[in-house]
Specification:
The protein is 62% helix and 0% strand. The protein is mostly helical.
């Protein structure tokens, strides 16, 4: 409700960036996300094959935390 009210109360200004930035292309972003997902799945499957204890709750987070950047 507050968001709807804020849309009408706040002035509709457009903000300009102070400096033109170089944003990565959408294809590059999707490629990096895909590589990260592949690495996470590879780590999970390798750890689960080598040590089945990694399928349990506390250790299942190890492959997920390993892919954080």
């Amino acid at each position: 409700m507050l968001v709807v009210v804020a849309l009408f109360v706040l002035p509709g200004q457009t903000f300009q960036a102070k400096s033109p930035g170089n944003a990565p292309s959408p294809l590059m972003v999707l490629l990096i996300i895909g590589i990260g997902a592949f690495v996470e799945h590879a780590l999970a499957s390798l750890l689960w094959c080598l040590q089945p204890a990694f399928a349990g709750f506390p250790l299942v987070l190890v492959p997920l935390l390993g892919t954080l950047q």
